[in-house]
Amino acid sequence: MASHECLIHAKTASKSASIIISNPNGNSRLKKCADRPIIDKLRVLPTFKRQIHVSRQISRFLIIALLLAGTVLTYFVIQRGTGPAALLALVTKKAAPTVLGWPAQVTPLSGGGSSGLLDVPAGQAAQARFGDPFGLVLDRQGNIYVADAGENNRIRKITPAGVVTTFAGSHEGYADGLASAAAFHTPSALAIDDAGNIYVADTGNNAIRKITPQGMVSTLAGNGKPGYLDGAAAEAQFNGPIGVAVDKTGKVYVADTYNDKIRLISPDGQVSTIAGGARPGYQDGLAQDALFDTPCALVINAKGELFIADTRNNAIRKISGAGEVTTVTRALPEDQDALMKRPIGLALTHDGFLYVGEMSNGRILQISPGNELRGLTGIDIDIVSGDDISLRLQRPVGIAIDKAGSLIVTDATNFAVRKIMPKASNPPAISVATPVATPVATVMPPVLESSAAAAPATASFPWPLKPQNQPREVVGTIGEVRGNYEGESRDHFHRGLDMQAAMGAAVVAVASEKISSPLPAWGINGLNEGMRIATMSYIHMRVGRAADDTPLDPARFTLINDEQDNQGKQNKLAQIRIKRGTRFQVGDTLGTVNRMYHVHLNYNPAGQVVNPLSLSFKGFKDEVIPTIEDIMIVDQSGQALSKKKHDKRLAIARSLGAVSIIVDAYDQADGNAKRRRLGLYQVGYQILQNNGTPLAGYEQPRINLEFNRLPADEEAVKIAYAEQSGITVHGNASTRFLYNVTNVVRDGHAKTGFWQLHEVPAGDYLIRILAADYAGNQASSGRDLAIRVE
Question: Which of 121, 258, 445, 683 could be cross-linked to 739 through a Cys-Cys bond (beta carbons 3.0 to 4.6 Å apart)?
Fold first, then answer.
């Protein structure tokens, strides 16, 4: 014992102990050192006592060190996604499997109602304002970063507490730097890596930008000029990239939207093309043999497979690790009722499910790992025509998945960030902001004092035709019933204002705006060809070209033809491409009037279809009084009641319970041709006693139809108009407007209703109709129907 300094490391018994003896050479062995009590009776040298004490201190130190090491390793596993898989499983909660078609509920999160730029403190996220919220990502702390384009050109941040701030950017431009010193031009998709760096598809600057967690902005790739060039990042060229994704190794993938290619930025700073040919099109195949058309979003899975929202092809495509491009799902162009049209947003779950945001109908869809497509939420999925309670999406362009599996979605048209979560058994009522007009009211005064105030004498808004200060004949108003070419006379609402013009006349911008949608033009060579900038849409024109189809402005409008045939001749014009972020000023020429001989103007502020007459066009005049041709009573089966012969009053049996009141009426404006019929602005009814005094509850007319803002659903046209309304083709035929005034269509909502006969006792009454145009003119003849309730 004296020759080696023994260290007691282990097991002590009440009577004896086994002692591990370590010698200075580092050899260890187990020896029976004593067979008697050792705590108080073992005689050892003072040095040995000190070593026992030191040993205990070392043991404590080792325990503490191991705990600290475990804590640090756990932190890196959670925060950085690194570390042994076994430990990762111990410190992270296993995500629940994704359910196909789970019941969804859309709830407000931040913004909505109107565009703008407003940061807010905690608890006031709903009051925040966005200009064009597009892509978004979540960091590990639950912060949401939003690419806010439009007039804002910033990256915004929403904390879990609801604080909304500007994270980077300050104005439209191109500048690297810290936070507000940086500048973006129409930022679109975002991606985030394990270190918290954010990658931005800076569409208007034709570049991919990088933002560190501290807010330092730099250019990752792209020289700022539109074009197509692989090579070193600083010299590479993109053409309006909209989609971006990053994998675990630091590779950044880009949907080079207007080059119709998928590009790769490697960690060593080289840009290469991994898929996409020399022209837009639709074709599967290997790498550059494949064709895309306006790809807008990307996500990548753990296998290295890349999924692409191939927007104009109405398709979701996949690129394998070997570069093979295949189609996951696609809607044919001729399928008007397809579930997925114009996919633009993508998110990928931990177990391989895709979420898709599509901008044609504002739906969120799911695609299973087995490629089964299912609707999650939206029109004709969980929302029906006339539903004025459910919160709706209009253009869900960015999608992210939070830790609970809920979706965070940017709704660009509604200037909002929404949350989609599993529907509660008793979901709370959701209040939807309606800032443009007054709320729905059942009872309105006869004087038009709602959003239908007559145009002021100082009207000053320009017309979409030259000269812009010259009045034009209005040949169609908002809310009119329109048919289709398949025999349906009540197919949709007329959603704007028509102004007569000669074929070939220049159509010009009425507002200075910036293109928001990646696909703002449609209907090439068709009667309904048109384009939308931001709040204004212009229809029935040759977009971007003159009457002879020559291009008007190649810098803004790109004309794309079909693929060449075998003789090398170009086929017909296939599409007009206008890049997201393109600006137009008042008076800029947008196209020329086609064979419809008029231009149609839609006005869509705050995500709503609003009556363009509210803009007060220069010199517009309407002094023509509306005409009421007939008033009808229809029972709940749709059968019109008729008078008995020689009766002066229409008899209505109270046993019918409820009936509809139908008004056949129309309007005209100054300068209209005699055959012209325009729709009304307001239609309502009032019940008068036989002596002409209002019945209790009807002191004011019930104006249920007011075309200030239209519902999102086209099917709502059948709520405003009774059967036999409209015409089935466009042309010279006169449209018949049969207004169902007991239903409600106004303020962007639609709801079916009836006149409840139990409200009145038996007796003689007058039904008085209020029929008014936007200028405030009211019909004075044919407005009364004498009835007898029996």
Answer: 683
